[in-house]
Design goal:
It is a single chain. With 153 residues, the chain is α/β, with parallel strands linked by helices. It has a single domain, classed as Rossmann fold. Helices cover 30% and strands 18% of the residues. Strands 3-2-1-4 form a four-stranded parallel sheet, with helices on both faces. A two-stranded antiparallel ribbon has the order 5-6. Strand 2, helix 2 and strand 3 form a beta-alpha-beta unit. Helix 1 packs parallel to helix 2 and helix 3 packs parallel to helix 4. The chain is globular, with a radius of gyration of 17 Å. The termini are far apart. 26% of the residues are buried.
């Protein structure tokens, strides 16, 4: 028997028990931005927020056609959820700035959570590097929220 068949821990393919969003509801309203929301981790992260009580969510990726199915799934979970869909290429500062302005308008200057799931990378030799790291945190949070990303208030 090899070492991998003697698992030291349980691997989970889905959230359950205390990790379910429904079991971690936030009190009060909160607004969320999820980038790279068109598939995989971003898609499923976005689905967790209305289950946890989010009242507004901005979902974005590089093509609008990829956002339609997610928007429908979000509204199935909570028909009253305010959903902002935005085409954003996070490698373009203008797109990120426009996202910040749209979020500010849609959520009245409130932004509680940013899930920066979109990645920009290039493969050069054997190295992967991020271009424009932090553009979501240095642009969206300060511009879209009333308190400039300095905690609640």
């Amino acid at each position: 028997m090899d070492i991998h068949s003697q698992a030291c821990c349980t691997l989970h393919g889905k959230a359950e028990g205390p990790t379910l969003a429904e079991n971690n509801k936030e009190s009060g309203d909160f607004e969320v931005v999820v980038t790279g929301a068109w598939q995989g981790l971003g898609y499923h992260t976005a689905l967790a927020y209305p289950r946890a009580g989010a009242t507004g969510i901005a979902i974005c990726c590089r093509t609008v056609s990829d956002l339609g199915a997610l928007e429908k799934d979000l509204l199935k979970i909570n028909p009253d959820l305010k959903v902002l869909t935005q085409v954003v290429d996070v490698s373009k500062p203008g797109d990120v700035g426009e996202l910040a302005e749209q979020v500010k308008r849609a959520f009245r200057g409130r932004l509680d959570v940013v899930v920066s799931n979109a990645g920009i990378y290039r493969v050069s030799s054997h190295m992967m590097s991020m271009r424009r790291p932090g553009s979501m945190s240095t642009t969206v949070i300060p511009r879209a929220s009333k308190n400039g990303g300095r905690g609640s208030g």
